[in-house]
Amino acid sequence: MKANLKSHYQVLIAGGGNGGISVAAQLLRKQSNLDIAIIEPSDKHYYQPAWTLVGGGDFDINDTVRNEADFIPKNAAWIKDKVAQFVPDENKVILAGGDAVTYDWLVVSIGIQLNWSAIKGLEGNLGKNGITSNYLFNVAPYTFECIKNFKGGKAIFTNPSTPVKCGGAPQKIMYLAADYFRKHGILDKADIHFYSGGGVIFGVKKYAETLNKVIQRYGIKTHFKHNLVEIRADEKKAIFETEQDGQKVQVVENYEFIHVTPPQSAPDVIRTSPLAVPDSPGGWLDVDKGTLRHNRYKNVFGIGDNTSTPNAKTGAAIRKQAPVLVENLYRSITGQQMDAMYNGYGSCPLVTGYGKLVLAEFDYNNEPIETFPFDQGEERWTMYQLKKRVLPWLYWNKILKGTA
Questions:
Q1: Do 92 and 146 lie in a common domain?
Q2: Closest CA to 39 of 113, 103, 88
Q3: Whose CB has fewer CB within 10 Å in the chain, the N or C terminal residue?
Q4: Does position 15 have pLDDT exceeding 70, yes or no?
């Protein structure tokens, strides 16, 4: 442990992404002398929601990254390491470097794990030979290279059966690609396919109806209950698994280029710990979906993509979860009853083309809960500007500072 760091903190926050930084900033706005440390190994902080627009050639990748040090609240300690083990029965976290840190209160916000290795033949081939993904900072710009250089043939976009961060991202890039092909007069030469492990295009009926019209407009072919299991890069073939007559079968498809969304899960460090939902394959952090407090360890809270809450895993969800967690944690610290509840709010800005966006907002029941006084089920230029210009500014200038 570095000399200026301690082995015990009043509040220990695992993860210095959107959730961890927002919670720390908001807690310190409530009481500036709280003893808080954030565990985060990365020097860089990324605004990932813009990577869809990077892949579509409409956002500079360099504008999505800043220095982590600039966003650690000045009254919080930064433990520049990663969690190797949670030991909640001893109120302890063991770091990758070997040190142990104890806590009175723990907030877990380490995000979601991208399981690239679950797709055979993918590793080592991402970012070349027409195989791309907007889920990686260093590969997202290659998506636009694939789109720009496309002359016709089959373009495949995949979505796994697991929960993913930003559930709309796998299809948003598909609509941008289709719109690019349309603008450049090659849409009629493009054979665009969406292979999804899910059963529907979108879980909220109102927005799904709009998306189905978009799919029709671009001539996209959809295939549900199909999971990508292998890529044969040298043959430009993608292998999907599906069920026919109760039997698992494989479907082989050729492609000119393929955009891959990897299967995702809770991080292994949660999945293998006592903090995970018992006997659950997903391994998510076992929290109450309303209060965000752990169901068994009452001094542990969770926020963001790593939790078991059945909402869309989006930055917008974190923005609504953070004040609830902060209020409930602060009331717990000060010996009061918790009274804040999270309603499952999630938002998915569904890009449907350049300058076109459907702002989907909904709760745990997949019922729309919309912000603006107009029908958000329609494609709008103004909402595209919200995603491209307003939300990134809000993130860096307000959300991470705990003021939005």
A1: no
A2: 103
A3: C
A4: yes
Q: Is 146 a catalytic residue?
A: no
pLDDT digits (tens, 9 = 90+) for 35-66: 999 999 999 999 999 999 999 999 999 999 99
Residues 6+ apart with CB under 8 A from 141: 54, 55, 61
Domain boundary residue, one of 325, 345, 365: 345
pLDDT of residue 4: 76
Instruction: Assess whether 250 and 277 both reside in one domain.
Output: no
Place of tokens 């529907």: 200
Same domain, 193 and 255: yes
Which stretches does DSSP call E strand in 138-296?
A: 153-159, 190-196, 221-223, 227-232, 237-244, 247-254, 257-259, 264-265
Which residue matches tokens 């009853």?
337
Q: Give the active site residue among 312, 329, 348, 360.
A: 348
Return the number of other C-beta atoms located less than 10 Å from residue 138's C-beta. Answer: 9
What is the tally of structural domains in the chain?
Answer: 2
Angle at 8 between CA 5 and CA 12, to 5 degrees: 90
**Catalytic annotation, pick one of 11, 166, 269, 326:** 166
**Are 52 and 22 in the same domain?**
yes
Closest CA to 399 of 344, 319, 337: 319
DSSP H or E segment with residue 78:
strand 76-79
**Domain for residue 36, yes or no?**
yes
Say if 401 falls within a structural domain: no
Residues 6+ away with beta carbon under 8 Å from 131? 122, 125, 231, 233, 257, 258, 260
Mean pLDDT of 120-147: 98
User: Are 247 and 147 members of one domain?
Assistant: yes
Query: Residues 112-124: pLDDT tens digits?
Result: 999 999 999 999 9
Domain shared by 276 and 331, yes or no: yes
Beta carbons of 233 and 125 less than 8 angstroms apart: yes
Question: Does the predicted model carry a pTM greater than 0.90?
Answer: yes
Whether 183 is in a domain gets the answer: yes
Helix (H, G, I), strand (E, B) or coil at 8: strand
**Residue-range definition of the domain harbouring residue 220:** 115-200+207-263
Rounded Cα distance, 401 and 21, in Å: 8
Tokens of 141: 């710009």
For residue 299, pLDDT over 70 is answered with yes
CATH for 294: 3.50.50.60
State whether 337 and 282 are in the same domain.
yes
